[in-house]
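Annotators were shown the component list below and the corresponding predicted structure, then asked to write short factual statements about the assembly.
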Amino acid sequence: MVRRIGRKPVEELDPLVDSVLGPHVPPMATVMPGEVVEVETWDALTKVTNPVTGPLYVEGAEPGDALSVEILKIDLPEQGTTAIIPGFGALEGWLRQLESRRKISEIREGKIHYVTDHGETLEIEADPFIGTIGVSPASEAITTLSPGRHGGNMDCPDIRPGNTLMLPVFRPGALFGLGDVHAVQGDGEVCGVAVEVPAVITMRFGVEKGRGIGWPRIESPEEIMTVGSARPLEDAARIAFRELVDWMASDYGWDKLDAYMFLSLVARARIAQIVDPLYTVVAKLHKRYLGK
Amino acid sequence: MVRRIGRKPVEELDPLVDSVLGPHVPPMATVMPGEVVEVETWDALTKVTNPVTGPLYVEGAEPGDALSVEILKIDLPEQGTTAIIPGFGALEGWLRQLESRRKISEIREGKIHYVTDHGETLEIEADPFIGTIGVSPASEAITTLSPGRHGGNMDCPDIRPGNTLMLPVFRPGALFGLGDVHAVQGDGEVCGVAVEVPAVITMRFGVEKGRGIGWPRIESPEEIMTVGSARPLEDAARIAFRELVDWMASDYGWDKLDAYMFLSLVARARIAQIVDPLYTVVAKLHKRYLGK
Amino acid sequence: MVRRIGRKPVEELDPLVDSVLGPHVPPMATVMPGEVVEVETWDALTKVTNPVTGPLYVEGAEPGDALSVEILKIDLPEQGTTAIIPGFGALEGWLRQLESRRKISEIREGKIHYVTDHGETLEIEADPFIGTIGVSPASEAITTLSPGRHGGNMDCPDIRPGNTLMLPVFRPGALFGLGDVHAVQGDGEVCGVAVEVPAVITMRFGVEKGRGIGWPRIESPEEIMTVGSARPLEDAARIAFRELVDWMASDYGWDKLDAYMFLSLVARARIAQIVDPLYTVVAKLHKRYLGK
Amino acid sequence: MVRRIGRKPVEELDPLVDSVLGPHVPPMATVMPGEVVEVETWDALTKVTNPVTGPLYVEGAEPGDALSVEILKIDLPEQGTTAIIPGFGALEGWLRQLESRRKISEIREGKIHYVTDHGETLEIEADPFIGTIGVSPASEAITTLSPGRHGGNMDCPDIRPGNTLMLPVFRPGALFGLGDVHAVQGDGEVCGVAVEVPAVITMRFGVEKGRGIGWPRIESPEEIMTVGSARPLEDAARIAFRELVDWMASDYGWDKLDAYMFLSLVARARIAQIVDPLYTVVAKLHKRYLGK
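Structure shown to annotators:
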């Protein structure tokens, strides 16, 4: 039977504890490498800003290691929320008359039912993923609104069932937290909000000793991926591509400049989001090019 | 029989004529709306900087119209060139010891054969497209290295056979030019160079009277797409998304803020390139969401 | 007699305590509004990253207030340090062959004696200021390397004797800290390091109840100034100018658009630094334009 | 007697000729090195976009040379215009309800009389300079709205009487043009418009053979200055600082890394403007540090 880690009652949520990833918050539970757990999460529009469930202390994780998180399953609720929040969103100042909006969409049998203002109901295939997932930085406590080297609010649809996320470890036990599941999201998350849902995530933890990665990485069955977060957006892309070059060189025997040229021919890149305090890009390489 | 428009002999190429898109260059040929033509192009690494074949004067095109260019076919040669050019490329200053490199890859039966420095030959599926394609600006002559409202060096893989590009018209006859075909390119074109080839492109022109679009647009059988070019990269994305919102509103009856929220759920975006004087992003919406 | 607040012994410095501004660190001392204190600070090149002396709990300061800090005097030591740190600095990747450098300059009678590599000794007028000075954010613990709404590593030469800095208060007691004195610094702090010194700062604290400012502000006898920090640099400038418009409107009776036009004619702006995690710009208006 | 070069009648202004700097426009006059001329200019708010007077063919100027322009005097008219143009300006999207505005200020005895909306008349010391001044690029025709390597719309208050501007030469005769005088301007030119005036400028031309500078430079009696234009703004600053390092190394015997450290202590930088297609920064070094 899988252990379940519940979310706090909403009235106990505290921004100093639940809206940051940092070294000061005492762990709420300890998990073992190899253990499968189910974690309940809040949606990002809850009472406090984007609360995460955590910190989880991962036994054996030490600074300099990599934490791996295999996403096995995400259970969605029956509806999700989309919104326009003036002062937030990629087209703030670019579209006239931004005003507050909120739209609830039903989720049934893996489909989101979006009712347009012009009266159509459009079905969107659900493609759930974890929007905010990360570890404690070395000394900072970073708002769960922001992504970074430590993971955080990357809003990256590739952090989805079937894939494995790797995060650098900066503190003993990693001090892992997660939340902000999206039932579906477009590239860029342009209005700043996706289909926001509370959820239950099934995952398995692992620790790779001494694997000192600089930024988050993702593996799917087909691709290796690196995640960079920065402003301006081109710097997020540069970080992601540089990390991908480094990965090709360290693990797959590529000359760095050859890897750089090759990525210019075959890389894929996703603009994860352009709405958070730092912007996020994911760079991807198909494994068919990596030999055995 | 299809009319063929040849490229100039290399020794006649002149940067003032062939490396700019502008109102001062006399047209080399006139084409009719509805006419199918084959155009020969140079690759970007020719004697002068990124030469285009043109200008073609499109009969009937006037400022305020949109020029449509349906890409029917691209014939590739038997090899293409990739290079690292120090001082150019997205990771300039981010990777140590950048040095000049040049690699020739054979192209056979729709596959590019890339020989890595570690001795493997990797097959890449060719996916040819037109890197530089545009019209004359109203009064400027813009280098063919740069993209912009007028099209130009967008390096966008969606400008490929089967798709139609629409460009705003600023000068009588549009004064259209094209070149810089890539046999394949990754998102971002990170080292600044793809698989550069001379090519023969078959295309059909059209004029949409009075359709005053602000930036280039692309239609594929499945998607509508908008192209924005700017620095920093997020501004390129903002332009593309705003133009997509406008298109949804003007042609498909969407409320603009509803379109904005919906794109936050289902849009796709491509980082076309982050190496040219302006960076380029393509925003995409699947036609399944657009009604009939 | 003035109370002196000493710096910690170097061996007790701890990055979780001394290299962040945040709500988790217990105050090292309490100060009263109106009280004059002398505070000893470390230089930024000490054992831990850019340590600050603090937190000081300012009696009576509550969220929504503004903390004012009047800088009365800065005592300099007899030498200071300048350095090039590869991977850091505004021209990283823009100048060839960056290598580690360190240069000690003597400070005598208000002059810095810089010995050039070509053998000259150049005298620079000392103009000491506080590089890092701020309060605790509401819930985050932010590295002392970064500036922000809370102040922090603004590296702004206008935070100097004779001037008063105002900071928003986010936590009870403000939880104020400071360090990183520069004996002199150029606009931009381009190599990432100025003339770094430990110092003793004499200052007077005040609390303005209910004065909810959004970003740091500075007053000199001649000017009002606002400080914005962001990336890219133009956003730092936009924040600073918008805050200056707001200040002119709220305190001096200007129409906002009229203030905007007027600043276009007479504003001064300083690029404080382009080397830290966010960049900093100071916008300035002479008081002669503000009536009595 | 000084030769006077008149501006075109307004009804003859043509955007293809007067709103670009480029190689296609036939020179309107030839000037000799050493010759003093008076040139009449239009203001930027004339019928066509920011018209320049020119091109002037400077006898003897060849690609690879530097053109020097000594600004001797600027004669102002009796009034100037300031405006808010929605869609333009640094705080577009940052201030609510931007609306079109226009304000005329009288200019008398070297003072601009600005009447505020709250009923005061404020006197601003006039400090006239040339906003748009440049040469033809090698093959492009660049709008006079944009700055660049060729000069153009730098909106830099240091291009003022008493100072000398140096520009790289790309075409035979340089093909020099100028306009857009501002009676005064604040750093950043935040609303996008200064006190815009037609004017008469007295200047002397010179040609420095073979002095291949990369970007515009300015000398005042006290300072050497370099001008960089780019987006984002930090890249404009990086260009200006790198050019200043290069100048210190090539002409004054500095080691480049030593120059880099020294500028970190004493450089001054001006945000010239953050409103044009590229943004402009001027980096400055006092001549007292440069030996004899």
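Statements collected:
1. The longest strand of chain A covers residues 66-75.
2. The domain at 217-289 of chain A is CATH 3.10.28.20 (Endonuclease I-creI).
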